[in-house]
Design brief:
By secondary structure, the chain is of the alpha+beta class. The protein contains 13 helices and 17 strands. It starts with 14 loop residues before the first helix and ends with a helix.
Amino acid sequence: MSDMRIGGLASGMNTDQIIKDLMNAERQPLNKMEQEREWLTYKRDAYRDVNKQLSELDTMAFDMKLERSYNSKDVSSSGSAVSATALSSADEGSYKMEVLELAEAAYNYSESGISNGEFDPDDSLENQKGNLVNGITLDDTFSITTYGEGGEETTVSFDVTGDKSLNDILGEINDSELGVRAFYDKGADKVMLERTATGDFNTDESKFLGAEIGFDGSSASFLADTLGIKNGKNDGTGWESNEKGGTDARFTYNNSFEMSSHTNDYSLNGVNYTFNEVGTSTVSVSNNVDDSFEKVMDFVEKYNEVIENLNGKTEEKRYRDFQPLTAEQKKDMEEEEIELWEEKSKSGMLKGDSVVSGALSSMRQNWYSPVETDGEYSMASQIGITTTSNYREGGKLEVDENQLRQALRDNPDSVAKLFSGTDANPGIARRLETSIENATNSIERKAGKPTSLDNNFMLGKQIENINDEMDSFQDRLTSIENRYWREFGAMEQAIQKMNSQSAYIMQNFGGGM
């Protein structure tokens, strides 16, 4: 089809408009296909919106299966020595903790300044050796040993060469598996070695005098001589470690027995204690009914929101006179007009839909049926949750807040069992998950996911088929339009020939008449 055609030169007719009008008539089946495709797209998107809402409810249903949703704990401490948090499994009560000693990380450092004040820790040791007051032996090696949770040793060796700087060697210590932090402080002109973990792991005094950062001073001249970090000292009565810290936390629980920990954190009976200072604190644990209540209420509110929206979808009015707009129709309309039209056109996509109606019915049933548990509650009504008496609300829930609070206060474990149940005897939340999963799978078979290919679900296949039909029909329209132009072109040629003949006759015979 040519992009530019001029007709009517001989006949004087508006050929372009005539063919355009004829093609508008020919195009009507294509418009119907375009509207059908748009309608299928509306329906696909309506289904996917349902799945989005069900997914949000499903996420909350999962949380309602968890015991912690019903056993949130409040924790308070009478003093600053100990702070604490509690798991849902923690028992209510008061616990006295006396901190006798805090856990500390081991550290050792230079006994005195290591340089003459002109030392550059980033320059090579070859260049800086004259600035080190205790001298240095290059092309030497030293080793450091640390200890793990079970007393296992980790030993790493390091080379002292002239091309390295002090910070290079300290960096190698930091990057090793020793768990040691090493750095040079220019202001103090000293090097510090410290464990990154608190606690006493080396309990054997025969190994490096019990140090957590162990090295042999006689073989580690770089540490002992150049950096002045001594493993120990001997005042004539025996060797004593120079290392500081490296202690476990010690504490007494409920005035009964003393315990220790490598760190200042300790978990006992579902309570996580943090030791802040030496002293005594009484930690009190109680059920946080407000937090549990809010979680149940949030879930009920979300459930009611989904029920209301889906009931609205199945009862929404269908405006059959408002067919989807074609691209051509939109060209002649204002944006506001298009929005109002499409609002009517999209209405009622799921009116009376069996999948959505079935999901609603199944979810309502989940709240009615008793739950077999070994807890106190077997029905939602026993904790104050019932369905509204107004049948028009489609099974929305009502909550007796006082009754729910009382149940959470008196027996939170039974409330948890009512919602969770077991695989063999599922509770309310588990049943809802199953209903949602069944509905979601049915909808995905019809409408797919946003990431699905069109040929993987029913509506997508129908949309693909229509697209193929539209492509074929568009080819046909092109052929028809070309035929019209050929026919009108032939007519123009005939008229032009006739006009030429008439002019010839008039020219040759008109004068003699």
